[in-house]
């Protein structure tokens, strides 16, 4: 890989919960190349969003904080340990962020043009702010941009609100866009249009994208590469094509098998059990209580992430032929 | 097709939508919808937000009264049911909603949530009541000894949805309406809940209406699929043929937009065009024509009727044969 746009090593995030430190992100390493579309997938409670918040050191709750690791951004700058003011300048200007529910992030009392302009002024945009807002709305394919700037959030559809938020996130021409479940609350048709938009923006603007989702279908349609996260750790990563063709980790295999397909009827499959609470993660491989091929070693010893071909996997049995078809015997 | 348990006859439902200080315009949530739901079958009702799916569900269980048309339960008009007959219907038709957290009382235990209908509708008390509650929890895969006394916040989303389902089937309904029952759940547990619904439907011969925007969910458990667009049925038929070879361009565009775990798939770019218009401002002719890649002049002028095809399908498209 060329010089990565973002290089994260051994990232750790903890929550203070009734006087205890609880680890929610436990040594995550990931890299995004310039212009690369990277997915981070896993069930709710695996630490995906906390990883994203950790990258920019901005948490929704004061109980969460960085507990270790390094985050190196474009040009070799370290983001971890950056003073808040310096971090604020990078957030929004060089790293844009989009979240699941646009309603939470748009002020209902201000026209959307105003809100996008605010993102520009906050970062001392040098050019013509009004012209830039129009340009952004046009880029987002919002109909009648000249009229749309004066519209309030409630006058727009859910899809248009999400476009307006993406416009604000991209206002300063960031090099990286972090999108956390950006289409989960939307209809499939709107989802397809927003994913098309993200793909086009990546091509047109050459930005790197980190897409966080629990939906492997969405990953398959957009990403170049995928990281699979389970209980605070990365358990597998690969190019999207290889991950779907030959998933190595039993968890990745289970997620793919559980995805419902509209184009063919398959036996309903779900992974037994549930994501462990970060208060008391299982010993050894954290997936072992749910894994049908777990052996004694899996219960006692945590597997390292080991590289092979284009990917890497953290499973003691990854090279055992039985691990290719983990779920085939189970009717679950 | 067996006899229908619940049926909609030419339903129209209109809301008055405020469009100005004094101005009100009619919003056609449903317009001329007819549907039969039979014993022992699952119909998936699909379409985008604003297509009228939830309104149809509410009319079918009598939570709202249609502006025009009838809903019948075993041949009787719902609007004419009174007293005991109405209570019997309310027991026979149960609903499971999308967000189990919002439909369960946060301060009442799992057992007490399931017991509500048993006390109210069946008059069960004491040991009989608690034996029945335990059976129901067992039946939805929640060992009673472990879960009976838990509060909703101590459960996962999937477990809360199981409790909501146990509560719905407690009173032995004939009709179960599930409104987006798995949309709020993780992909990994959706199958648990769908399999549970499927098993209960078979065991009890339920008439099941599954409201979903997810064609993958429809494909997984529905016998028939009904596609709604702006308050009208645009296509309906057996799940397999409809999803394999959609006849209506709207169904096709929904399918095309649905993500699949298949990186090699070539998706048609940017289908469908634009967004669903407001029901206050319905396009003329075929409501779908502004978004349809195949629309001709006739589609702008003339509303297509729902026509039967020999593969057991109904479709409302002027060009269904050629496409």
Polypeptide structure, described:
The complex is a heterodimer of chains A (332) and B (323). With 332 residues, chain A is α/β, with parallel strands linked by helices. Chain A is built from twelve helices and twelve strands. Among the domains of chain A are: 64 residues, no CATH class; 84 residues, no CATH class. In chain A, helix 4 packs across helix 5. Chain B is of the alpha/beta class. Chain B has twelve helices and twelve strands. At the A-B interface, helix 7, helix 8, helix 9, helix 10 and helix 11 of A face helix 8, helix 9, helix 10 and helix 11 of B.
Structural key phrases:
heterodimer, A: 332 residues, alpha/beta, eight-stranded mixed sheet, 12 helices, B: 323 residues, four-stranded antiparallel sheet
End-to-end distance of chain A, in Å? 40 Å
> How helical, in percent, are the residues of chain A?
25-40%
Radius of gyration of chain B: 21 Å
Number of helix segments of chain B? 12
Structural Rg of chain A: 21 Å
Largest interface: A-B, 43 and 47 residues
Strand order of the largest sheet of chain A: 6-7-8-3-9-10-12-11
Question: Residue share in helices of chain B?
Answer: 25-40%
Tertiary shape of chain B: globular
Distance between the termini of chain B: 28 Å
What's the total helix number of chain A?
12
The largest pleated sheet of chain B is described as: 8 strands, mixed
Query: What average pLDDT do the residues of chain A reach?
Result: 92
């Amino acid at each position: 890989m060329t010089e990565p746009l973002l290089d994260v090593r051994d990232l750790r995030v903890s929550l203070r919960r009734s006087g205890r430190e609880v680890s929610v992100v436990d040594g995550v390493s990931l890299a995004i190349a310039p212009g690369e579309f990277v997915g981070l997938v896993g069930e709710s409670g695996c630490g995906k969003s906390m990883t994203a918040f950790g990258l920019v050191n901005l948490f929704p709750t004061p109980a969460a904080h960085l507990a270790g690791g390094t985050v190196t951004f474009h040009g070799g700058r370290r983001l971890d340990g950056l003073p808040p003011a310096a971090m604020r300048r990078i957030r929004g200007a060089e790293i844009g962020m989009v979240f699941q529910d646009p309603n939470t992030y748009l002020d209902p009392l201000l026209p959307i043009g105003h809100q996008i302009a605010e993102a520009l002024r906050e970062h001392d945009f040098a050019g013509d702010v009004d012209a830039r807002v129009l340009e952004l709305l046009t880029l987002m394919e919002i109909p009648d941009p000249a009229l749309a700037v004066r519209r309030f959030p409630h006058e727009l559809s859910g899809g248009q609100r999400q476009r307006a938020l993406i416009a604000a996130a991209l206002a300063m021409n960031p090099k990286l866009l972090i999108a956390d479940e950006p289409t989960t609350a939307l209809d499939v048709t709107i989802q397809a249009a927003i994913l098309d938009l993200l793909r086009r923006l990546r091509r047109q603007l050459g930005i790197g994208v980190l897409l966080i989702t629990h939906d492997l279908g969405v990953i398959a349609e957009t990403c170049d590469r995928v990281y699979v996260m389970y209980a605070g750790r990365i358990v597998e990563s690969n190019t999207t094509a290889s991950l779907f063709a030959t998933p190595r980790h039993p968890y990745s295999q289970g997620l793919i098998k559980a995805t419902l397909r509209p184009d063919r009827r398959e036996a309903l499959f779900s992974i037994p059990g549930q994501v462990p609470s970060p208060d008391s993660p299982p010993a050894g491989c954290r997936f072992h209580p749910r894994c049908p091929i777990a052996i004694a070693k899996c219960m006692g010893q945590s597997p390292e992430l080991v590289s092979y071909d284009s990917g890497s996997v953290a499973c003691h049995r990854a090279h055992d032929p039985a691990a290719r078809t983990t779920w085939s015997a189970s009717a679950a | 097709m067996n006899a229908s348990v619940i049926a909609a006859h030419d339903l129209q439902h209109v809301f008055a939508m405020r469009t100005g200080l004094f101005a009100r315009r009619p919003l056609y949530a449903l317009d001329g919808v007819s549907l039969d739901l039979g014993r022992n079958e699952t119909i998936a009702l699909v379409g985008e937000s604003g297509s009228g799916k939830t309104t149809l569900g509410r009319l079918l269980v009598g939570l709202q009264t249609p502006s025009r048309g009838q809903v019948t339960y075993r041949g009787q008009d719902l609007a004419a049911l009174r007293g005991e007959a109405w209570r019997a219907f309310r027991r026979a038709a149960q609903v499971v909603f999308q967000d189990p957290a919002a439909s369960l009382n946060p301060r009442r235990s799992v057992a007490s949530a399931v017991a509500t209908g048993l006390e109210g509708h069946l008059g069960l008390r004491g040991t009989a009541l608690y034996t029945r509650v335990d059976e129901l929890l067992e039946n939805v895969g929640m060992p009673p000894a472990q879960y009976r006394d838990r509060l909703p916040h101590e459960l996962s989303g999937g477990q809360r949805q199981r409790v909501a389902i146990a509560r719905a089937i407690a009173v032995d309904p004939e009709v179960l309406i599930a409104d987006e029952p798995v949309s709020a759940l993780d992909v990994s547990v959706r199958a648990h809940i769908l399999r549970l619904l499927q098993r209960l439907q078979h065991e009890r011969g339920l008439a099941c209406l599954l409201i979903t925007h997810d064609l993958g969910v429809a494909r997984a458990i529905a016998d028939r699929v009904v596609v709604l667009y702006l308050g009208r049925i645009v296509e309906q038929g057996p799940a397999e043929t409809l999803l394999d070879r959609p006849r209506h361009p709207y169904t096709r565009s929904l399918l095309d937009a649905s993500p699949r775990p298949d990186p090699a798939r070539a998706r048609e770019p940017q289908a469908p065009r634009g967004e669903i218009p407001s029901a206050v401002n319905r396009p003329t002719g075929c409501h779908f024509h502004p978004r349809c890649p195949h629309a001709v002049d006739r589609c702008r002028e003339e509303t297509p009727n729902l026509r039967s095809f020999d593969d057991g399908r109904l479709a409302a498209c002027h060009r269904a044969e050629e496409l």
